[in-house]
Amino acid sequence: MLPYLSLQLSASPRWLLSWSLLVQVFSGGCSAQLDPVRNFCRRFGHQTAVIDRRLYIDGGLLNYNPISQYPTNYSNTGLFYQDLDVLGSSGMPELYANLSKNSSVPSVNGGTLWTDNVNKRFYLFGGEYYQQPPPPYFTLWSFDALSGSWDSLGQPAQAIINGVSYGAGVSISERGEGYYYGGWMSNNSIPGWSGPAVATSALVKYDMDTNAWTNSTGPDSTRRAEGAMVYIPISDGGMLVYFGGVQDRFVNGTVTGQPMEQIYVYDILSSRWYVQNATGAVPQMRRRFCAGATWAADQSSYNIYLYGGASIPPSPSPGFDDVYILTIPSFQWIKLYPSPSGSNQTTGQYPHHSLTCNVISSAQMLIIGGTFPAGGADCDAPDQFGTHNLDLGEQNPDRLPWRLFVPNLTAYAVPDPVLAVVGGSPAGGATATAPVDGGFSNPDLRVLMTRKASVASSRTPTRAVPSATGGSSGSSNGGAAGGEQGGISTGAIAGIAVGATMVVLAVLAGCYCLRLRRRADRNTTTTVGEPWSSQTPPATSLSYPDSLSLRYQFGNSERMATGSHGNNSNNRPSELEAPPPSGDFWHGTDGVTYGLLGGGGGGGGGSAAGGELRTKIDSEGRVWVQVGTGRSLISSSGSDGVVVSPLRGDIGGGGRTMSPASSRPPLPHEEPQELMSTEPRQRQRNILHSSGGGSSAGYGEAATATMSTTQGPPLRHETFYHP
After folding, report:
1. Residues with Cβ < 8 Å from 194, sequence gap 6 or more?
2. Burial degree of 316 (CB within 10 A; 0-12, 13-18, 19+)
3. In 3D, which of 443, 442, 441, 420 has the Cα closest to residue 432?
4. Bias category Gly residues: which stretches (predicted)?
5. Which helix (H) or strand (E) covers residue 702, if one does?
6. Is 609 in a helix, a strand, or coil?
7. What is the pLDDT confidence band of residue 507, given thresholds at 50, 70 and 90?
8. How far apart, in whole angstroms, are the C-alpha atoms of residue 43 and residue 354?
9. Per-residue pLDDT tens for 232-241?
10. Is the pLDDT of residue 573 over 80?
C-alpha cells in the first residue's frame, strides 16, 4: 500500500489530492511489499513461450510471500523472462522483470502464446480477464522480441473468433501456424455474455505469415476444455495430439472427465481428426495439467510428457503431482514419477495445476508455476521463482527425472522406462511401432504413423531478422504480420515513447528510494530477509533527464510538478541557496515555502503560481517540494485546521502514514489493497492528536503506524523432489 499524507484542509482539498499524488509518485517505486520478483510466492494460469534462449512468462495470477499475509490472488500485469543461459543461485534460470507492457495490452489468465521463432515474435491468444470486464471485441496482440514492443494486429477479418480461455494451444514455428482447441466462453472472455460458462468444440488456426484465421470443427461435436495439445513431426506434415481435460456435454456448467485413454490426433495436411485408444499405465482423469513433446533422434518414438493437474469432480483428490509419458506410435502410457517400483505412492506430496511446460532443446522440460489446491502455507520454491526442471532422458548420474537445469544439455536420450516398453536404444531404434491391443483404429493411421515430417524449418523470415553473424535475413516485403517491412514498427515507436516516460519516472523514484535506503541503513537494525540479486549490472551513476515534469489533473484543474524555474534550461531541481535547515519546512529566498519530501507534510496557504510545484535539492540529495507561498504554513488551531502526520516510510522499516479511508484518493483497479484484518502482529500504532481544535469523525487525528519487518527466509519445499 502506498503511503498517504493524513491532512485536513479547509480551503483547498484539490491541493491535498495533488500533494498526495506527488508523494505517491516519489515513493511508489520504493514499495517492496508486493514485488513480483522479490516477494514471489506462486504463479498460475499464466502463458509461456520460448524464443532463442529466453523463456517468456506473461499474465496469469500471482500470490505474494508471505502467503498467510497476502492470500489474495493478484493479476500479473507484467511480462517477465528467464534467461536460459544465466543460472541464479538456486541453479535455475534467472528471472528478469524489465520488459515493457503497457495497460492497453491484455493481462489475462488461461490463454496461450503462439511462438514464431523464425520472425522472433509470439502472439497472445485467448485467456480471461480477472476482476475486470473483457474488451468489446477480440484483438490479437504480438510481442516483438527484437524491439521489445507490443503490436496490435486488430480483429480477425476472415472468421468469427471469440475470446476463449483454458483451452489447448500449440504453435508450430516451422510452419508458421498457431492452433487452439476447445476452451471456455464466459463473461470473463466475451463481453455481454450471460449464463454459465460454455466450452467450445472448435479448432482455431492462425497463419502467422498471412495474418489469416480459420475456425473449424474438432474431432466431434463434444465441447471440451482444460486439456493439453502438442505437436509431433509424424506423418507428412506433422500431427497435433490432444488428450485429457473435461467435457461440457450438458452446456450448463456441469462437466465430466475426458478419459485419458482416448487420444485425439489431427493430421495437419489432410485436416482430418482420428481417435486412437491408448493402453498401459493410463493416468487418472485430470484437467489443467501441462505437457510437452520430444522424440528420439531417428524419430522412431515420439514421447509426450505430462505433469500434474487437478482432479475431476466428484473425486475427493486435491490433484496430482506426477509424471506420465505417452509414447507414440505404440500409444502406451508409462508412469515415470513417482517411481512405480518400490513405492505405494500414486502421486507426489505437492499436487498442483494451472501451470506450463516448455521443452528446452529436446532434452529438458521446465515446469513453471501452478496453484496448490491441497492448501498449506508453503510457497512454490520462491528462490527459483516456481521453476522446476524435468530431465526428460534422465541423463544424470542418479537416473532420476528431477534435476537442476543444465544450459548445455541439448540432445534427448530415450530413458530406460520408455526403452523397457518400446525397445531400442537411447538414440532410437524402437521396435514397438503400433498399438499392442487391437492395432490402429483407422487404416489411414497405420500409414501416416510410418512417415516423418521434417524437423528442420524451410520457412524464411518475412522481415529483417539479425543472423548469428550480426547480419540480417528474410524478405523485406510480403506477408509479415502487421505489415512490417524490416524497420521499426509502429508498436516499437510507441514502446520507445512509453519507455522514455517510464525512465523519467523511474529516475525520480530511484533518487528518493536511494535516500530512504541510506537512512534505513543508518537508523534501523531490522532484517528484511535474505538479499536478492537480479543478476543485472548496477548502474554507475544517476542523472537527471533534460526535461522532468509530472502532469496530473483533478477535476478541471491541471497542475504540474516540475524542476524548471524560470528560464533555467537545466530542469533538475535547483540546489538550495543556503545550508539545509534542521526541520522539515524551509522558507526560501524566492518567497516560497518548501517541505522535505519524506519529512513532515502539510499544505495550505495557496497554490503554486501557474499550476506548478517548485522543487529544490539540498547538498545531502534530499528533495524539497513547494507547499505554500508564504511563511505561515502550519497552525495547530484556528481556520487553517492543518494536522501534520510525519511521512518517514523507509523501505523495510520505519513507519507508514495511515489516514482515514475516506480521505484517500482511489487506487487504480490493479493496485493491491491492504487487508486491514491481516496487519502484522508486530505493528505498533501511535495516534498523534492535534494540539487544539480537533474535528469530528476522526479527522482531527493523524494515525502513524510503525511496523517491524523482521522475517525469516522465504518459505520453500522442504524436500528436493523438484529441483
Report:
1. 187
2. exposed
3. 420
4. 471-484
5. strand 701-706
6. helix
7. low
8. 9
9. 999 999 999 9
10. no
What one-character-per-residue DSSP string does 194-216 give? -SS-EEB-EEEEEETTTTEEEEE
**The one-letter amino acid at 293:** A
Reading the block at residue 185, the C-alpha cell is: 466462453
Cα–Cα distance between 592 and 289 in angstroms, integer? 63
**C-alpha–C-alpha distance, residues 438 and 59, integer Å:** 44
Angle (deg, nearest 10), helices 490-523 and 13-28: 90
* Rounded Cα–Cα distance for residues 115 and 100 (Å): 18
**CA 237 to mean position of chain CA atoms:** 34
Q: Exposed, middle or buried, 555 (CB in 10 Å: 0-12/13-18/19+)?
A: exposed
User: Would the CA dihedral through 104, 108, 114, 118 be positive or negative?
Assistant: positive
Q: What SS3 class is residue 21?
A: helix
DSSP state string for 53-85: TEEEEE--EEEESSTTT--S-EE--SEEEEEEE
Instruction: Enter the C-alpha cell of residue 496.
Output: 520507445
Nearest to 691 by CA among 648, 627, 634, 647: 634
State the average pLDDT for the chain: 73
Mean pLDDT to the nearest integer, 504-512: 55
Helix ranges (H only) for 524-631 are none
In this predicted structure, what is the pLDDT of residue 342? 54
Pick from 86, 105, 106, 104: nearest CA to 96: 86
pLDDT of residue 595: 74
What is the pLDDT confidence band of residue 252, given thresholds at 50, 70 and 90?
confident
Are the C-beta atoms of residues 308 and 320 closer than 8 Å to each other?
Answer: yes
Quick one: DSSP state of residue 572? S
pLDDT value of residue 580: 58
Span 47-75, average pLDDT: 94
Q: What whole-number distance in Å separates Cα of residue 353 and Cα of residue 61?
A: 13
| b (16+ CB within 10 A) / e for 522-547 | eebeeebbeebeeeeeeeeeeebeee
The Cα-based distances of 357 to 46, 49, 110, 244, 391 in angstroms read 11, 10, 14, 15, 13
* Lowest-confidence region among 40-49, 399-408, 704-713: 704-713
DSSP secondary structure letters along 128-175:
E-SSSPPPSS---EEEETTTTEEEE--S-SSS-----BS-EEEEETTT
End-to-end CA distance of the chain: 34
pTM over 0.70, yes/no: no
Instruction: Give the DSSP H or E segment for 502.
Output: helix 490-523
CA distances from 702 to 44, 266, 452 (A): 40, 67, 74
101-115, 141-155, 632-646: least confident range = 632-646
- For 11, the grid coordinates are 480551503
Give the CA distances from residue 636 to residues 10, 120, 283, 609, in Å, rounded to whole numbers and listed in that order.
13, 63, 73, 26
H/E stretch holding 17 reads helix 13-28
Interatomic CA distance for residues 326 and 264, integer angstroms: 13
Report the SS3 class of residue 585.
strand
Alpha helices in 373-489 (DSSP H): 416-422, 443-448
Q: Which residue has the cell 514419477?
A: 337
> 79 with 149: CB under 8 angstroms?
no
**Taking a C-beta distance cutoff of 8 angstroms, is the pair 25, 559 a contact?**
no
Residue 282 pLDDT > 50, yes or no?
yes
d(CA 362, CA 600): 59
Query: 20 with 5: CB under 8 angstroms?
Result: yes
